[in-house]
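TEACHING EXERCISE
Course module: macromolecular assemblies
Task: Read the component lines below, then compare them to the predicted structure of the full complex.
Student: A.B.
Group: 4
Components provided:
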Amino acid sequence: MGTRLGDLVERFGGQLAGDPNLEVTGIAPLADAGASHISFLSNSKFRAQAAQSGAAALILTPADDALIGAEYAGARIVTPNPYVYFARAAQYFAALHEMKAPAGIHPSAFVDASAQVDASASIGVHAVIEAGAVIGAGCVIGPGCVVGRDAVIGAGTQLLANVTFHARCVIGQRGIIHSGAVIGTDGFGFANEGGVYIKIPQTGRVVIGDDVDIGANTTIDRGALADTIIEDGVKLDNQIQIGHNCHIGAHTAMAGCVGVAGSAIIGKYCTFGGAAMVLGHLTIADRVHVGSGSMVSRSIAEPGQYTGFYPLAKNADWEKSAAIVRNLSSMREKIRTLEKTIKTLTTQDEK
Amino acid sequence: MGTRLGDLVERFGGQLAGDPNLEVTGIAPLADAGASHISFLSNSKFRAQAAQSGAAALILTPADDALIGAEYAGARIVTPNPYVYFARAAQYFAALHEMKAPAGIHPSAFVDASAQVDASASIGVHAVIEAGAVIGAGCVIGPGCVVGRDAVIGAGTQLLANVTFHARCVIGQRGIIHSGAVIGTDGFGFANEGGVYIKIPQTGRVVIGDDVDIGANTTIDRGALADTIIEDGVKLDNQIQIGHNCHIGAHTAMAGCVGVAGSAIIGKYCTFGGAAMVLGHLTIADRVHVGSGSMVSRSIAEPGQYTGFYPLAKNADWEKSAAIVRNLSSMREKIRTLEKTIKTLTTQDEK
Amino acid sequence: MGTRLGDLVERFGGQLAGDPNLEVTGIAPLADAGASHISFLSNSKFRAQAAQSGAAALILTPADDALIGAEYAGARIVTPNPYVYFARAAQYFAALHEMKAPAGIHPSAFVDASAQVDASASIGVHAVIEAGAVIGAGCVIGPGCVVGRDAVIGAGTQLLANVTFHARCVIGQRGIIHSGAVIGTDGFGFANEGGVYIKIPQTGRVVIGDDVDIGANTTIDRGALADTIIEDGVKLDNQIQIGHNCHIGAHTAMAGCVGVAGSAIIGKYCTFGGAAMVLGHLTIADRVHVGSGSMVSRSIAEPGQYTGFYPLAKNADWEKSAAIVRNLSSMREKIRTLEKTIKTLTTQDEK
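Instructor-supplied answer key:
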């Protein structure tokens, strides 16, 4: 049931030092790997541990191989980016053990007569596919999912369980939407008349590119009039909220609990740490990295790393610093007074 | 398939300057509006754009009309609040195109024999209506929703998809609960005995007024002994958490990711920016406006705008400022020392 | 339909002063309690109110009993921890009125032939139990829940409605998972190759101990290679996100909206206030208490209370203090300059 190292190298590249017929059955971290595992060294600070690893084989960089290759007893696959190699090999091993969802429509599912479901797609138990929806080749629609009227799910995209994908929204190919996510819910749009809110119908869509992952219980609002856009390769973790009319550039990643208010335009290749928040109608450049727990309250034109959270302290120390923060203007006044007094003193001295 | 301007004015008021028989088919923003659209000018800074708009008709204020009415080629509807007019007209156009959920109970739904479902209500695919629940006239209960025992859903209220509305909770008329929301989950109540938590049964309800909107994946806890109360016209965005025994005043609005801890009493006509947090057992006056990402840790007795988040900075700058914030007491000490030294100096000088 | 005080004392202990045959039908707070209720005094500041309470009986400490026992007209149960006594008694009364979910599998549920469902378990309407899953004695699997392949639900554990419990994950006995929670969703793990994310399959599990409560719409990621661990007695409120490979120690409690990034190791008997955030790969000692809205960005080795949020202020005041916070380095420079100048002045004076 193992895989030959030679087969791995044929699939994923890299220079093999060792027996191509050696078989491994899976990937394990350095500390746990045994004689049937391949492991990887992606952080050179674990070099000594890697040299002693009991793994049958090791994925490592040319630089690390030069240093520990001779010392390490097993086979080696040398590649510029062992972590990426690990990811690809892990996908390969996972696919070997994966239970594929069977093609076809489960008898308990409801599929409207006007929906188009590819014969290779799997529609799970109690799933609901509404009128006019299009489910592409190889899609997996999990148990309890609801795909709304005229929605489009691209080939190979999976909806896990209890996902709601609302009417007319679109997702491209090879995406994953985790359980409990809601795509295309109404944006938070109201006109206020004397204190009372009048709902503005949200008639735009959510349009999602290829290779997009959306985390569990994440919510993405449909556009008010235009569309909310999520470009190719975006990765959204769990519990994220994306407001209406946002535009998120390709290959941007957001960690859990991030919130993005309406109409924010976010660049490509950005990252957002957990619980970072972005106010509405801002524009964030490409390659901006926002730290966890940080609030973005102005547009950011320049790439780079941005942070803004109050540092944690023992409660008593925080109480003190917070009290001073509340009165920073008075501290500034005191400094100004000091400066003036000293100016007077030194001027007197000069006289 | 269009609507006469005359019909719009008859329904929603406003002064029409132009042909009442001119037909429009929908609403579009200034930039996109064409000859079949009506558009609106709600922010005077777009006045020049509005004057050049290709829209068949424009909704605008008397003041803006006085300035650009002559210049603009199309018909005009003049009204004090064009944004509210837009909201109402947009609702009207949306209703024309809306697919109404059909009245009746889908054969796949489960409705307990003791539940009361109005004949005009729509119970969707795989929905569950438990014993004793009451579903009012014109309600729409979406696919996968669960309405608990003895719950009451007021006339015209919609639950989209996969909503859970727990036992004995109540919502009034014309509400909307978006997908994945959970109403009436247990509050977080425990007694602690030597470090171990003993659950306190949560036997209160959630009681929600009329015209309340609740966002996707928002959660509202039922009361511990008494009820959690959400008054009329409250608007809650997605991913909000409302703790047990909270009371939220009429026409208060909360943006996405807000959290309100248990037993907070919040006034009417308040607003809370995204990810604002309110501690438990606080009282917030009417017309308090809390900014995004701000933590309310004390009661607020006075209306007004409140804010409290750490300003974002380039990471290196934040590192510096955060290190100083951690040591603000020592900075204050330094200033006190300086003040004393200078007092000594100036006293010496006076001598 | 009432319960004799004598029966309560027999079940839950305490010294009864009064008639053991007196019957009460439920528990109520001091302010609301009438002649058919038992009430409790857990906070001595309400001692005067308790003395006047109309409750048939009162649960109170020996100290409070010494002070008001003679004054209060009803029966008393004297016990060291009235709040814990209240919790236990309230559970007892709640159980009397509870509608037990009927044992057995609802005809609309889907249970794979290879799943093992105990005969005393209740599988609700439209629930899904996948291949190889094990559902223990007395479990309640609510409507719309999905229990994945080879998952294990311990005896007496309840999943409310629309819960997703993914493949191979495990929960112990007497747990509660509230509606919309997702257990065992993929962790957020990617290798980055030239800006493009390559998914790392998440093949670990979530392993949850006994007596664990998980709130509505809370999400817990499965481990990447190893498991995510939630120990016995942990209590998680709603809308919490726990990243992959976290380990949460026994009897730790987290309030709503908390986020814990991947691989954080959190001790026993900790508490986290609402919306607190913990960065990844940190280690938090036992008995650490983190305040609401606080970001934990470094490991914490010492027990105690920690806080870190920007204090709320009127918006205009916040604008001022935030502007100064942004420029704290320049304020520090000014102070340094002042110190130097004064040093020069005083040195001159000394000459």
